Amino acid sequence: MGTNVEENKARFKEIFNDKITRRGSEKLLEWLESEGSDFFTAPASTRYHGAYEGGLCEHSLNVYDCLCSYLARDRVREEYKLECSEETTAIIALLHDLCKVNLYRASYRNKKNEHGDWIQVPFYEFNDMLPYGHGEKSVYIVNGFMRLTRDEAMAIRWHMGFSGEENKNTIGNALELFPLAFALNVADMESTYFVEGRDYK
To answer: CB atoms < 10 A from the CB of 102, how many?
Structure first.
C-alpha cells in the first residue's frame, strides 16, 4: 500500500496557499517543506492507518475532505449552527497531526517469509523527541508559527475525541463546549476507519 507523495504534496500546498493567509503561515509551510521536517514523506502511524511513506500528508488531506463534507451538511449548518471559515477548516484539518512530524523512524526487523526463512522487512518505529502529548503538541507547533483562535486550538487539541487517553469527562466537556472539536473528531475518525482503513499485518 502506498500513496503518490508528490501529487499529495502539490494538493496540500495548493489548499494551504489558497485558504490559509494568516500571518506566519508562509513560515509554517516553509518549515514543512524544509529538511527539518518529514511531513510530506512521513507515515500517519507505525502499523495502522497510513503506515507508509506519505501517509501523514494523505491522511491530512482526507480529513480535510471529510471535514468539508461534514460542515456542508444541512443539519450541521441549520440545527447545530456550526459554521467556520474556509481558512479555519483548512487550518484544523491540514495541521491537526503536526505532532507526527519527525515522530516515526524507518527501521528493519526480522520476519519469517512464507518459506520459513528469516528476512529483514522495513517498518516504522516510534521515536518521540518532543513528548508533549498528541493534540496539544500539534497546537504547540502551529502556535510557534501563527496564532490559532481558541476554537481552532480546541479542535486540534481534542481531535482524538474519546479515543484519546485523557479523562473521559474532560473530553466530553470539551466536545460539548467546542462543536468544531467534535466536527474535526468525526472527520478524523471517518478518514481513519472508512477512507483509509487499517492494516494490522
So the answer is: 15
- Burial of residue 65, with CB atoms counted within 10 A of its CB: 0-12 exposed, 13-18 middle, 19 or more buried: middle
Amino acid letter, residue 62: N
Q: Which amino acid is at 166?
A: E
Collapsed DSSP state (helix, strand, coil) of residue 124: strand
| CA 41 to chain CA mean position, Å | 13
Measure the CA–CA gap between 176 and 169, rounded to whole angstroms.
11
Contact 68, 89 (CB under 8 A): yes
Query: What value does the CA radius of gyration of the chain take, rounded to a whole number of Å?
Result: 17
CA distance 22 to 107: 38
* Euclidean distance between CA atoms 123 and 163, whole angstroms: 24
pLDDT along the chain (201 residues), means of 10: 84 98 98 98 86 94 98 96 96 98 85 85 82 95 98 97 82 95 97 78 35
Predicted structure pTM score: 0.90
- Find all residues with CB under 8 Å of 79, minimum gap 6, and list them: none
